[in-house]
Write a structure and sequence with these properties.
The chain is α/β, with parallel strands linked by helices. The chain has helices at about 10, 25-35, 80-95, 105-110, 120-125, and strands at about 1-5, 40-45, 50-60, 75, 100, 115-120. It is globular. This is NTP pyrophosphohydrolase.
């Protein structure tokens, strides 16, 4: 099973749906949708299928006050969300756990462990129920 590690700020910001008016509410909506992933088989980025195991969402800034929904592990970044996400991905890789990081942030992508698979927010929005 793959750990799906989500850069929530990047994913929320990928769609111009008014998220900037209320970042915590937009993050909460995304987290609610993420609860559908654990235990589900979805199309893998680049082809094939993958079984979603744990879903981990990194939140930062104003969105760090959101409530964690059941089925999603919430990691509250004490500072930079990118720093927290890169460290968490490194820990998972060090444990030998397969990880799929969802972000479009090129700088963050360059900091991830080589064993991590990376995909953009578009993939996540395609596999999530509406």
């Amino acid at each position: 099973m793959v750990v799906v590690l989500v850069d929530t700020a990047n994913v929320v910001g990928a769609r111009p749906d008014g998220w900037w008016r209320d970042r915590p509410a937009a993050t909460s909506r995304l987290l609610a949708r993420l609860t559908a992933l654990p235990g589900r088989i979805v199309p893998a980025p680049g082809g094939g299928r993958l079984l979603c195991g744990e879903v981990v969402a990194v939140v930062e800034g104003a969105a760090s006050t959101v409530r964690a929904p059941e089925g999603v592990t919430l990691v509250r970044a004490p500072g930079s969300g990118d720093d927290t996400l890169a460290a968490y991905a490194g820990r998972l890789a060090g444990e030998g756990r397969p990880v799929l990081v969802v972000t479009a942030d090129r700088g963050l992508r360059a900091r991830l462990p080589g064993s991590a698979t990376v995909t953009g927010p578009g993939w996540l929005y395609e596999v999530l129920p509406a």
